[in-house]
Protein backbone atom coordinates (compact mmCIF):
# COMPACT_ATOMS: atom_id res chain seq x y z
CA UNK A 1 0.00 0.00 0.00
CA UNK A 2 1.36 3.45 -0.94
CA UNK A 3 1.88 6.06 1.79
CA UNK A 4 -0.76 8.40 0.40
CA UNK A 5 -3.42 5.72 0.19
CA UNK A 6 -2.77 4.54 3.76
CA UNK A 7 -2.78 8.11 5.08
CA UNK A 8 -6.17 8.65 3.45
CA UNK A 9 -7.86 5.60 4.97
CA UNK A 10 -10.66 6.43 7.43
CA UNK A 11 -9.87 5.94 11.10
CA UNK A 12 -12.25 2.97 11.41
CA UNK A 13 -10.40 1.07 8.68
CA UNK A 14 -6.98 1.79 10.19
CA UNK A 15 -8.12 0.67 13.65
CA UNK A 16 -9.41 -2.56 12.12
CA UNK A 17 -6.01 -3.17 10.50
CA UNK A 18 -4.23 -2.58 13.80
CA UNK A 19 -6.53 -5.03 15.58
CA UNK A 20 -5.98 -7.75 12.96
CA UNK A 21 -2.18 -7.60 12.93
CA UNK A 22 -0.69 -10.90 14.11
CA UNK A 23 2.23 -8.97 15.57
CA UNK A 24 1.48 -5.41 16.62
CA UNK A 25 5.19 -4.53 16.58
CA UNK A 26 4.98 -4.30 12.79
CA UNK A 27 3.16 -1.00 13.28
CA UNK A 28 6.56 0.60 13.87
CA UNK A 29 8.17 -0.68 10.67
CA UNK A 30 6.61 1.77 8.21
CA UNK A 31 6.60 5.51 8.76
CA UNK A 32 3.02 6.22 7.56
CA UNK A 33 1.67 3.35 9.64
CA UNK A 34 3.56 4.59 12.66
CA UNK A 35 2.20 8.11 12.20
CA UNK A 36 -1.39 6.86 12.05
CA UNK A 37 -0.71 4.71 15.14
CA UNK A 38 0.48 7.73 17.09
CA UNK A 39 -2.67 9.63 16.22
CA UNK A 40 -5.14 6.77 16.78
CA UNK A 41 -3.53 4.57 19.44
CA UNK A 42 -5.80 5.87 22.18
CA UNK A 43 -8.74 4.32 20.31
CA UNK A 44 -7.18 0.88 19.78
CA UNK A 45 -8.89 -1.79 21.88
CA UNK A 46 -7.16 -4.99 20.60
CA UNK A 47 -3.48 -5.88 20.21
CA UNK A 48 -1.65 -9.11 19.41
CA UNK A 49 2.09 -9.56 20.00
CA UNK A 50 4.24 -12.42 18.69
CA UNK A 51 7.62 -12.70 20.42
CA UNK A 52 10.23 -15.09 19.03
CA UNK A 53 13.40 -13.71 20.61
CA UNK A 54 14.35 -11.58 23.59
CA UNK A 55 14.82 -8.39 21.60
CA UNK A 56 11.22 -8.60 20.38
CA UNK A 57 10.04 -7.68 23.85
CA UNK A 58 11.41 -4.14 23.75
CA UNK A 59 8.51 -2.69 21.78
CA UNK A 60 5.68 -4.12 23.88
CA UNK A 61 5.60 -1.79 26.89
CA UNK A 62 5.83 1.48 24.88
CA UNK A 63 2.94 0.41 22.66
CA UNK A 64 0.78 -0.63 25.61
CA UNK A 65 1.44 2.68 27.37
CA UNK A 66 0.33 4.61 24.30
CA UNK A 67 -2.86 2.55 23.87
CA UNK A 68 -5.06 3.67 26.75
CA UNK A 69 -8.14 1.57 26.03
CA UNK A 70 -6.87 -1.97 25.47
CA UNK A 71 -9.66 -4.48 26.12
CA UNK A 72 -8.29 -7.51 24.26
CA UNK A 73 -4.62 -8.48 24.56
CA UNK A 74 -2.98 -11.58 23.06
CA UNK A 75 0.70 -12.42 23.62
CA UNK A 76 2.50 -15.31 21.93
CA UNK A 77 5.87 -16.14 23.49
CA UNK A 78 7.71 -18.72 21.40
CA UNK A 79 10.37 -21.18 22.43
CA UNK A 80 13.75 -19.51 22.84
CA UNK A 81 12.22 -16.28 24.08
CA UNK A 82 12.17 -16.65 27.86
CA UNK A 83 10.25 -13.66 29.12
CA UNK A 84 10.67 -13.32 32.90
CA UNK A 85 7.50 -13.38 34.96
CA UNK A 86 8.27 -9.89 36.23
CA UNK A 87 8.38 -8.46 32.70
CA UNK A 88 5.19 -10.19 31.56
CA UNK A 89 3.49 -9.05 34.74
CA UNK A 90 4.62 -5.45 34.15
CA UNK A 91 3.00 -5.46 30.70
CA UNK A 92 -0.32 -6.64 32.07
CA UNK A 93 -0.04 -4.11 34.89
CA UNK A 94 -0.04 -1.32 32.28
CA UNK A 95 -3.49 -2.34 31.03
CA UNK A 96 -4.89 -3.66 34.32
CA UNK A 97 -7.73 -1.12 34.46
CA UNK A 98 -9.03 -1.75 30.94
CA UNK A 99 -8.13 -5.34 30.00
CA UNK A 100 -11.16 -7.62 29.62
CA UNK A 101 -9.82 -10.47 27.48
CA UNK A 102 -6.31 -11.88 27.95
CA UNK A 103 -4.89 -14.72 25.86
CA UNK A 104 -1.40 -16.16 26.35
CA UNK A 105 0.63 -18.64 24.31
CA UNK A 106 3.72 -19.51 26.32
CA UNK A 107 6.38 -22.06 25.37
CA UNK A 108 8.89 -22.26 28.18
CA UNK A 109 10.34 -24.48 30.87
CA UNK A 110 10.29 -21.69 33.43
CA UNK A 111 7.55 -21.73 36.00
CA UNK A 112 5.11 -18.86 35.88
CA UNK A 113 2.52 -17.93 38.49
CA UNK A 114 -0.62 -17.33 36.48
CA UNK A 115 -2.57 -15.65 39.25
CA UNK A 116 0.19 -13.11 39.94
CA UNK A 117 -0.23 -11.91 36.38
CA UNK A 118 -3.93 -11.11 36.63
CA UNK A 119 -4.55 -10.35 40.30
CA UNK A 120 -4.92 -6.60 39.69
CA UNK A 121 -7.07 -6.81 36.53
CA UNK A 122 -10.34 -5.36 37.78
CA UNK A 123 -12.36 -5.96 34.59
CA UNK A 124 -10.95 -9.28 33.35
CA UNK A 125 -13.77 -11.45 31.99
CA UNK A 126 -11.86 -13.98 29.84
CA UNK A 127 -8.52 -15.70 30.47
CA UNK A 128 -7.15 -18.21 27.96
CA UNK A 129 -3.77 -19.91 28.33
CA UNK A 130 -2.18 -22.15 25.68
CA UNK A 131 1.16 -23.71 24.86
CA UNK A 132 3.74 -26.03 26.31
CA UNK A 133 3.82 -24.35 29.66
CA UNK A 134 5.37 -24.94 33.04
CA UNK A 135 2.78 -22.72 34.69
CA UNK A 136 2.89 -22.74 38.43
CA UNK A 137 -0.80 -22.84 39.23
CA UNK A 138 -1.19 -22.61 42.99
CA UNK A 139 -4.47 -22.44 44.80
CA UNK A 140 -6.32 -19.30 43.84
CA UNK A 141 -6.72 -17.56 47.19
CA UNK A 142 -8.50 -14.39 46.13
CA UNK A 143 -11.70 -13.71 44.21
CA UNK A 144 -11.74 -12.92 40.50
CA UNK A 145 -15.25 -11.55 40.60
CA UNK A 146 -15.46 -10.52 36.93
CA UNK A 147 -14.01 -13.67 35.33
CA UNK A 148 -16.59 -15.44 33.15
CA UNK A 149 -14.39 -17.63 30.92
CA UNK A 150 -11.28 -19.56 31.96
CA UNK A 151 -9.42 -21.77 29.46
CA UNK A 152 -6.38 -23.68 30.75
CA UNK A 153 -5.19 -25.43 27.61
CA UNK A 154 -2.30 -27.88 27.18
CA UNK A 155 -0.91 -27.64 30.69
CA UNK A 156 -1.03 -30.12 33.52
CA UNK A 157 -3.18 -28.80 36.33
CA UNK A 158 -3.79 -30.65 39.55
CA UNK A 159 -7.33 -30.72 40.82
CA UNK A 160 -6.89 -28.48 43.93
CA UNK A 161 -6.06 -25.54 41.66
CA UNK A 162 -9.08 -26.26 39.47
CA UNK A 163 -11.33 -26.50 42.51
CA UNK A 164 -10.02 -23.13 43.69
CA UNK A 165 -10.95 -21.58 40.34
CA UNK A 166 -14.53 -22.77 40.77
CA UNK A 167 -14.60 -21.50 44.34
CA UNK A 168 -13.13 -18.04 43.72
CA UNK A 169 -14.74 -17.08 40.41
CA UNK A 170 -18.40 -16.49 41.33
CA UNK A 171 -19.30 -15.20 37.85
CA UNK A 172 -17.60 -18.07 36.00
CA UNK A 173 -19.69 -19.20 33.04
CA UNK A 174 -17.22 -21.39 31.10
CA UNK A 175 -14.33 -23.55 32.32
CA UNK A 176 -12.01 -25.50 30.01
CA UNK A 177 -9.21 -27.62 31.50
CA UNK A 178 -7.19 -29.81 29.14
CA UNK A 179 -4.59 -32.33 30.26
CA UNK A 180 -6.44 -32.59 33.53
CA UNK A 181 -4.37 -34.51 36.09
CA UNK A 182 -6.23 -36.13 38.93
CA UNK A 183 -7.37 -39.45 40.27
CA UNK A 184 -10.67 -38.78 42.02
CA UNK A 185 -12.10 -35.36 42.73
CA UNK A 186 -15.42 -33.68 43.37
CA UNK A 187 -16.10 -30.45 41.50
CA UNK A 188 -19.02 -28.27 42.51
CA UNK A 189 -20.13 -24.85 41.36
CA UNK A 190 -23.61 -23.40 41.26
CA UNK A 191 -23.06 -20.85 38.48
CA UNK A 192 -20.89 -22.35 35.75
CA UNK A 193 -22.80 -23.02 32.52
CA UNK A 194 -20.12 -24.74 30.41
CA UNK A 195 -17.38 -27.17 31.48
CA UNK A 196 -14.80 -28.92 29.29
CA UNK A 197 -12.43 -31.40 30.94
CA UNK A 198 -9.83 -33.39 29.00
CA UNK A 199 -7.54 -36.13 30.28
CA UNK A 200 -3.77 -35.69 30.45
CA UNK A 201 -2.82 -38.30 27.85
CA UNK A 202 0.87 -37.88 28.64
CA UNK A 203 0.37 -39.72 31.89
CA UNK A 204 0.17 -43.05 30.10
CA UNK A 205 -2.57 -45.69 30.01
CA UNK A 206 -1.37 -47.42 33.15
CA UNK A 207 -2.79 -44.64 35.31
CA UNK A 208 -6.31 -45.12 33.96
CA UNK A 209 -8.78 -42.33 33.17
CA UNK A 210 -9.49 -39.63 35.75
CA UNK A 211 -12.74 -40.09 37.62
CA UNK A 212 -14.60 -37.02 38.79
CA UNK A 213 -17.84 -36.17 40.49
CA UNK A 214 -19.31 -33.06 38.94
CA UNK A 215 -22.20 -31.41 40.71
CA UNK A 216 -23.58 -28.15 39.38
CA UNK A 217 -27.17 -27.00 39.27
CA UNK A 218 -26.92 -24.58 36.32
CA UNK A 219 -24.60 -26.50 33.99
CA UNK A 220 -25.91 -26.38 30.41
CA UNK A 221 -22.99 -27.74 28.35
CA UNK A 222 -20.51 -30.47 29.36
CA UNK A 223 -17.57 -31.92 27.41
CA UNK A 224 -15.77 -34.95 28.88
CA UNK A 225 -12.72 -36.02 26.88
CA UNK A 226 -11.44 -39.33 28.22
CA UNK A 227 -12.79 -38.72 31.71
CA UNK A 228 -15.20 -40.92 33.64
CA UNK A 229 -17.80 -39.07 35.61
CA UNK A 230 -20.52 -39.17 38.23
CA UNK A 231 -22.75 -36.35 37.06
CA UNK A 232 -25.38 -34.32 38.87
CA UNK A 233 -26.53 -31.64 36.44
CA UNK A 234 -30.33 -31.48 36.18
CA UNK A 235 -30.29 -28.51 33.77
CA UNK A 236 -27.77 -30.00 31.30
CA UNK A 237 -28.70 -29.36 27.66
CA UNK A 238 -25.58 -30.51 25.74
CA UNK A 239 -23.33 -33.52 26.38
CA UNK A 240 -20.19 -33.90 24.26
CA UNK A 241 -17.95 -36.98 24.47
CA UNK A 242 -15.10 -36.51 21.92
CA UNK A 243 -13.43 -39.71 23.09
CA UNK A 244 -14.44 -42.92 24.82
CA UNK A 245 -16.16 -42.51 28.16
CA UNK A 246 -15.98 -45.81 30.02
CA UNK A 247 -18.13 -44.81 32.96
CA UNK A 248 -20.88 -42.22 33.06
CA UNK A 249 -23.10 -42.36 36.12
CA UNK A 250 -25.93 -39.85 36.16
CA UNK A 251 -28.92 -38.86 38.22
CA UNK A 252 -30.91 -37.64 35.21
CA UNK A 253 -30.21 -36.46 31.67
CA UNK A 254 -33.84 -35.95 30.71
CA UNK A 255 -33.22 -32.34 29.66
CA UNK A 256 -30.29 -33.06 27.33
CA UNK A 257 -31.11 -31.97 23.78
CA UNK A 258 -27.75 -32.45 22.02
CA UNK A 259 -25.45 -35.49 22.27
CA UNK A 260 -22.17 -35.88 20.36
CA UNK A 261 -19.83 -38.87 20.54
CA UNK A 262 -16.46 -39.30 18.84
CA UNK A 263 -13.15 -41.12 19.05
CA UNK A 264 -12.16 -44.75 18.83
CA UNK A 265 -12.06 -47.96 20.88
CA UNK A 266 -15.65 -47.62 22.03
CA UNK A 267 -17.61 -50.73 22.83
CA UNK A 268 -20.98 -50.97 21.16
CA UNK A 269 -22.80 -51.45 24.47
CA UNK A 270 -21.24 -48.25 25.86
CA UNK A 271 -22.67 -46.20 23.01
CA UNK A 272 -26.10 -47.76 23.35
CA UNK A 273 -26.16 -47.24 27.12
CA UNK A 274 -25.37 -43.53 26.76
CA UNK A 275 -28.05 -43.03 24.09
CA UNK A 276 -30.54 -44.64 26.49
CA UNK A 277 -29.70 -41.98 29.09
CA UNK A 278 -30.89 -39.12 26.87
CA UNK A 279 -34.47 -39.93 25.74
CA UNK A 280 -35.34 -36.34 24.81
CA UNK A 281 -32.46 -35.42 22.51
CA UNK A 282 -33.25 -33.56 19.30
CA UNK A 283 -29.73 -33.80 17.86
CA UNK A 284 -27.19 -36.64 17.99
CA UNK A 285 -23.76 -37.12 16.41
CA UNK A 286 -22.33 -40.64 16.52
CA UNK A 287 -18.96 -40.36 14.78
CA UNK A 288 -17.08 -43.18 16.47
CA UNK A 289 -15.07 -46.30 15.80
CA UNK A 290 -16.10 -49.36 17.77
CA UNK A 291 -13.92 -52.31 18.72
CA UNK A 292 -16.80 -54.76 18.22
CA UNK A 293 -18.81 -53.68 15.15
CA UNK A 294 -22.15 -55.42 14.90
CA UNK A 295 -25.44 -54.63 13.17
CA UNK A 296 -27.50 -52.00 14.94
CA UNK A 297 -30.87 -53.15 16.19
CA UNK A 298 -32.66 -50.04 14.97
CA UNK A 299 -35.83 -50.51 17.03
CA UNK A 300 -33.86 -50.92 20.23
CA UNK A 301 -31.20 -48.30 19.54
CA UNK A 302 -33.63 -45.51 18.64
CA UNK A 303 -36.44 -46.56 20.96
CA UNK A 304 -38.21 -43.58 22.49
CA UNK A 305 -36.24 -40.88 20.64
CA UNK A 306 -39.41 -39.16 19.47
CA UNK A 307 -37.87 -35.67 19.40
CA UNK A 308 -34.83 -36.56 17.30
CA UNK A 309 -34.70 -34.41 14.15
CA UNK A 310 -30.95 -34.06 13.43
CA UNK A 311 -28.46 -36.91 13.16
CA UNK A 312 -24.83 -37.36 12.09
CA UNK A 313 -23.20 -40.71 11.27
CA UNK A 314 -19.47 -41.42 10.95
CA UNK A 315 -16.57 -43.71 11.83
CA UNK A 316 -16.78 -47.47 11.46
CA UNK A 317 -20.02 -47.26 13.45
CA UNK A 318 -21.49 -46.13 10.13
CA UNK A 319 -21.13 -49.72 8.89
CA UNK A 320 -23.13 -50.95 11.89
CA UNK A 321 -26.05 -48.72 10.91
CA UNK A 322 -25.90 -49.88 7.28
CA UNK A 323 -26.15 -53.62 7.85
CA UNK A 324 -29.81 -54.04 8.79
CA UNK A 325 -31.60 -50.78 8.02
CA UNK A 326 -35.16 -50.56 9.34
CA UNK A 327 -37.17 -48.17 7.17
CA UNK A 328 -40.11 -48.11 9.58
CA UNK A 329 -37.89 -46.85 12.39
CA UNK A 330 -36.37 -44.22 10.09
CA UNK A 331 -39.82 -42.95 9.17
CA UNK A 332 -40.85 -42.65 12.81
CA UNK A 333 -37.75 -40.58 13.66
CA UNK A 334 -39.12 -37.61 11.67
CA UNK A 335 -35.64 -36.44 10.70
CA UNK A 336 -35.22 -32.94 9.28
CA UNK A 337 -31.44 -32.86 8.85
CA UNK A 338 -28.88 -35.66 8.44
CA UNK A 339 -25.13 -35.75 7.83
CA UNK A 340 -23.03 -38.75 6.82
CA UNK A 341 -19.22 -38.70 6.94
CA UNK A 342 -18.49 -41.00 4.05
CA UNK A 343 -15.81 -43.65 4.48
CA UNK A 344 -14.11 -45.90 1.92
CA UNK A 345 -16.94 -48.43 1.86
CA UNK A 346 -19.51 -45.89 0.71
CA UNK A 347 -22.56 -47.03 2.73
CA UNK A 348 -24.98 -45.93 0.01
CA UNK A 349 -27.69 -48.16 1.46
CA UNK A 350 -28.08 -45.73 4.34
CA UNK A 351 -28.11 -42.68 2.06
CA UNK A 352 -30.84 -44.19 -0.09
CA UNK A 353 -32.84 -45.26 2.96
CA UNK A 354 -32.71 -41.74 4.41
CA UNK A 355 -34.00 -40.25 1.16
CA UNK A 356 -36.75 -42.86 0.75
CA UNK A 357 -38.05 -43.27 4.29
CA UNK A 358 -37.67 -39.71 5.63
CA UNK A 359 -40.02 -37.47 3.61
CA UNK A 360 -39.57 -34.68 6.14
CA UNK A 361 -35.80 -34.66 5.59
CA UNK A 362 -34.91 -31.21 4.25
CA UNK A 363 -31.20 -31.75 3.68
CA UNK A 364 -28.90 -34.78 3.60
CA UNK A 365 -25.26 -33.71 3.69
CA UNK A 366 -22.69 -36.23 2.47
CA UNK A 367 -19.27 -35.17 3.77
CA UNK A 368 -16.45 -36.77 1.76
CA UNK A 369 -13.57 -34.83 3.32
CA UNK A 370 -12.07 -37.90 5.03
CA UNK A 371 -11.44 -39.51 1.67
CA UNK A 372 -9.09 -36.65 0.72
CA UNK A 373 -7.40 -35.85 4.03
CA UNK A 374 -3.89 -35.82 2.58
CA UNK A 375 -4.72 -33.49 -0.28
CA UNK A 376 -3.77 -29.84 -0.69
CA UNK A 377 -5.47 -29.49 -4.07
CA UNK A 378 -7.76 -26.54 -4.68
CA UNK A 379 -10.34 -28.37 -6.79
CA UNK A 380 -11.29 -31.12 -4.39
CA UNK A 381 -14.32 -32.25 -6.37
CA UNK A 382 -12.19 -33.05 -9.42
CA UNK A 383 -9.72 -34.88 -7.20
CA UNK A 384 -12.55 -36.83 -5.58
CA UNK A 385 -13.82 -37.87 -9.01
CA UNK A 386 -10.32 -38.97 -10.07
CA UNK A 387 -9.57 -40.98 -6.91
CA UNK A 388 -13.01 -42.50 -6.32
CA UNK A 389 -14.80 -42.53 -9.70
CA UNK A 390 -17.39 -45.17 -8.76
CA UNK A 391 -18.27 -43.48 -5.49
CA UNK A 392 -18.43 -40.10 -7.22
CA UNK A 393 -20.80 -41.43 -9.89
CA UNK A 394 -23.03 -43.12 -7.30
CA UNK A 395 -23.29 -39.88 -5.32
CA UNK A 396 -24.06 -37.86 -8.42
CA UNK A 397 -26.77 -40.36 -9.32
CA UNK A 398 -28.34 -39.97 -5.89
CA UNK A 399 -28.04 -36.20 -6.08
CA UNK A 400 -29.80 -36.20 -9.46
CA UNK A 401 -32.72 -38.09 -7.94
CA UNK A 402 -33.11 -35.77 -4.96
CA UNK A 403 -32.43 -32.07 -4.54
CA UNK A 404 -32.17 -32.67 -0.79
CA UNK A 405 -28.73 -34.30 -1.09
CA UNK A 406 -25.71 -32.01 -0.74
CA UNK A 407 -22.14 -33.18 -1.34
CA UNK A 408 -19.36 -31.41 0.55
CA UNK A 409 -15.61 -31.94 0.73
CA UNK A 410 -14.92 -29.46 3.52
Written account of the structure:
It contains 14 helices and 22 strands. The chain has helices at residues 3-7, 11-20, 31-40, 60-66, 85-94, 114-118, 159-168, 268-277, 298-301, 317-323, 327-333, 348-357, 380-387, 389-401, and strands spanning 46-51, 72-77, 101-106, 111-113, 126-130, 134-136, 149-152, 157-158, 174-181, 184-188, 194-199, 211-215, 221-225, 228-232, 238-241, 248-250, 258-266, 283-290, 310-314, 337-341, 363-367, 405-408. It has 410 residues and is of the alpha/beta class. α9 (298-301) links the parallel β18 and β19 (310-314). α11 packs across α12 (348-357) and α13 (380-387) packs across α14 (389-401). Among the domains are: 1-136, no CATH class; 263-410, no CATH class. The protein is globular. The model has no long low-confidence stretch (mean pLDDT 83). The strands form three sheets. The chain has a 16-stranded parallel beta sheet that branches.
Oligomerization category of the chains in this entry: single chain
**What's the end-to-end separation, in Å?**
33 Å
Query: How many whole angstroms does the radius of gyration measure?
Result: 26 Å
Largest sheet: 16 strands, parallel
| Beta-strand fraction estimate | 25-35%
Determine the structural class based on helices, strands and strand pairing: alpha/beta
Strand tally, please? Answer: 22
Shape: globular
Give the overall average pLDDT. 83
Count every helix, treating DSSP H or I runs of 4 or more residues as helices: 14
The helix content is 25-40%
Q: What are the low-pLDDT stretches, counting only 5+ consecutive residues below 50?
A: none
Protein name: F-box domain-containing protein
Pfam family, one: F-box-like
Organism: Selaginella moellendorffii (Spikemoss)
Domain F-box: 6-43
